[in-house]
Amino acid sequence: MIPEEPFPGVFMLVIDDQEIVATRNLTPGLTVYGERLVEVGGEEFRSWSPFRSKLAAALKKGLRNEPLKPRDKVLYLGVASGTTCSHVSDIVGSQGHVWGVDFAPRPMRDLIEKVVKHRRNISPILGDARHPETYAAVVPKVDVIYADIAQPDQAAIVVKNAELFLPARGWAFVAVKSRSIDVTKKPRIVYAREMESLRQGGFEIVESLELDPFERDHAMIVARFRP
Ligand SMILES: C[S@@+](CC[C@H](N)C(=O)[O-])C[C@H]1O[C@@H](n2cnc3c(N)ncnc32)[C@H](O)[C@@H]1O
C-alpha cells in the first residue's frame, strides 16, 4: 500500500478498513502518548488521534488548508506535554524546528522527558504567551504559529505573537475552545467573535472548521497574516 499524502508530511492510512491520520515517525520505535505505530513500505508511521489532537480532528473533518510542510519553523503556543507538537515535529522533520511555549511547569516537564529528549527539532520554552517579548531573543521569524491556549484573550495573544514572529503572508492555526471564552454564548457566536478579533489584528481568515464530535464546542481557524 502506498499511503495517501494529502498535505506534505500528513498521511491517510487505511488500517482494518478504517482511515486514520498519521505522520512519518521521526523517532522510529518510540511513541509519545501510546499512539499506534504502523509500518508501511518499510517506513514507520504514528497514528494521530483526532480525539487527542485538534489538528488531527480538523484533518479528519476535511481541513482544506494545511500549510505546515517539511523544513518549516513553527511557534507553538500552549504546547502542553507535546501530543500535537510531536506530530508537528514529524511534519517539519529534521530540517525544520518547533519552539513550544507553555506556562505550566508540569506538562513542560513531561514534554522534555517524553518528547524533547528524543527529538532535536523542538525547543521548549517555559513562558507566558501573553508576553512574547520574554522569548523574543530565542525565537526567530517563523512560517506558522499554532495556538491552543484556551484563554479568553487568545486572539489578542496570537496577534501580539504574530507582530513579533510572523512575516507577512505567514500562517496561523488557532484552536478555539468556546467555553473558555464565553460560556454564556453559543459556540458559533464565540467563533465569529474570535475571527473578527483576528481580522482586526491583520489576519485574513482562510478557513474555519467545527471539531465536533471529536472535540465538543471547539473550532479550528486557519488564518493568514497581512496577506
Ligand atoms: C488545551 S492545552 C494544549 C494541548 C496541546 N496543544 C496539544 O494538542 O497537545 C492548553 C495549554 O495551554 C497552556 N496555556 C494557557 N495559557 C497560556 C499562556 N498564557 N501562556 C502559555 N501557555 C498557556 C496551558 O498550560 C495548557 O498546557
Task: Provide a compact summary of the structure.
With 227 residues, the protein is α/β, with parallel strands linked by helices.
Q: What is the total domain count?
A: 2
> Mean pLDDT score, rounded?
97
CATH superfamily heading of the largest domain: Vaccinia Virus protein VP39
User: Helical content, roughly?
Assistant: 25-40%
The largest β sheet comes out as: 7 strands, mixed
Shape-level CATH architecture of the largest domain: 3-Layer(aba) Sandwich
Label the structural class: alpha/beta
CATH class of the largest domain: Alpha Beta
Task: Count every beta strand, where a strand is a DSSP E run of 2 or more residues.
Answer: 12
How much of the residues is beta strand, in percent?
A: 25-35%
- Give the N-terminus to C-terminus distance in angstroms: 39 Å
Shape: globular
Q: Strand order within the widest sheet?
A: 8-7-6-9-10-12-11
Any idea of the CATH topology of the largest domain?
Answer: Rossmann fold
**H and E order:** EEEEEHEHEHEEHEHHEE
Radius of gyration, taken over Cα atoms and rounded to an integer in Å: 17 Å
The unique ligands bound to this protein are: S-adenosylmethionine
